[in-house]
Amino acid sequence: EERGINHFAHQGLLRETFGAHYGTIRKLSPLILENKIKAYNIPQGVIIQLYRALGANLPGIITHVGLETFIDPKYEGGKLNSISDEDYVRRIVIDDKDFLYYKNPGKINYCLLRGSESDENVNISFKKEGLNLDSLTIAIACKNSGGKVIVQVGKLVKNGEINPKDVVIPNILVDYFVLSSDKKYHMQTGGTYFNEDFLVNKIVEKSISGPRQLDIRKIIARRCAMFLNKDIKVLNFGIGIPEIVSAVLDEELIAQNFVTTIESGIVGGIAQSGLDFGVAKYPEAIIDATYQFDFYDGGGIDMAFLGMGECDKDGNINVSKLGNVVTGSGGFIDIAQNSKTVIFSGTFTAGGLKVDVDNHKLNIINEGKNKKFVNTVAQITYAGSYGFKSGQTVYVVTERAVFKLCENGFKLIEIAPGINLDKDILSQMEFMPEISHELKIMDIRIFSDKLMGLNNI
């Protein structure tokens, strides 16, 4: 809470925010919720495209991303409180198809970026940075707005020491650089000062430490992993339980059959979690996030594993508005709306839920006090009706039940061994789901300490 944009979170200093993910900017939440600043949530990939449009002197962008979600002016228009009165998003029709037009919020007066090295002519390399992100796109947008580009670097080198292909931000875009050699002000990620493994691609010997301890998160992740097959190649993992899916693939010795991607620009490698989320150990490629979202928006992801905060009777998912914290959508909308197959995952209830496994059966020791399957989600981050009409294959996986998206919402297709349908599932939902006539029991291998034997994938 003491780093990054949190430094600017003071009443009177900020007038308005325009962002994708507010989860790590905890000090902004009270200002937004108390109507002390205007605030807007726009999908991460759309914001990056808006930077690119601004750099090319275009008024905005047209895209399908965000349709039927809370970003759509049909609902909230991405406005996060009642004083946010600017209409940055409009719904339009082109050739009988619905699109959203996102208006650029205005010119950029200053941008604050970071690189690793600057030469004497102020060409900036990202030699030790774990990611390029959208830094070049932002620099162009700011410079062509007449703004000032300020770049922090850790080292000044002589002209000629930076290979031309290693220059990420050329000197024609930089107004000032700030030299900061103190590593505490130049961390590689939110949780790591520097790790060479984030920058190199090398073959890693398989771990022989044994499988991860079986808990509720692993139970869910295991069921998620079982959706994979030989026709699936490109994956994306969200934050939380989806991160455990990656660990399951690793311990089942099938991770090499797939290519992990992260919206930050990572291709391949071992995705990291927590404050290191966004980077990977031993990546095969690190590209600009701008181009990663181009790939995503065009349908490049075969299967995405994403979190689930709430799910409602219409097949909608909410991850962006939970409790009294402004979280935002981040890249969730871009990914969820455009992936060929989406697996949403989360515990069935929240707030004190405890389970255990005995003889391949799941037991509810203490039920969560908060229902997550509700009549209406607090905010639509993923629209089930839009996904179904788009031809997506979509599932919701919990520790005790699996649902499939159908025309009228989610259909219950599997329950865990040991679970009572009425007591443990239906009574813990605010709505009655459609129940498959071929309701199945989840694979008992999921509820064992032993490996599942997924190496046939």
Helix content: 10-25%
Number of helices: 9
Strand coverage percent: 25-35%
CATH class of the largest domain: Alpha Beta
Low-confidence stretches: none
Given the C-alpha coordinates, what overall shape results?
globular
Number of strands: 33
CATH architecture label of the largest domain = 3-Layer(aba) Sandwich
Quote the CATH topology of the largest domain: Glutaconate Coenzyme A-transferase
User: How far do the termini sit from each other?
Assistant: 42 Å
Q: Indicate how many domains the architecture comprises.
A: 3
Structure report:
The chain has three domains: 4-103, 3-Layer(aba) Sandwich (Glutaconate Coenzyme A-transferase); 110-186, no CATH class; 216-447, 3-Layer(aba) Sandwich (Glutaconate Coenzyme A-transferase), CATH 3.40.1080.10. The strands form ten sheets. Strands 18-15-14-13-19-24-30-31-32-33 form a ten-stranded mixed β-sheet, sandwiched between helices. Strands 10-7-8-11 form a four-stranded mixed β-sheet. The mean pLDDT is 94. The protein has 457 residues and is α/β, with parallel strands linked by helices. Helix content is 17%, strand content 28%. The protein contains nine helices and 33 strands.
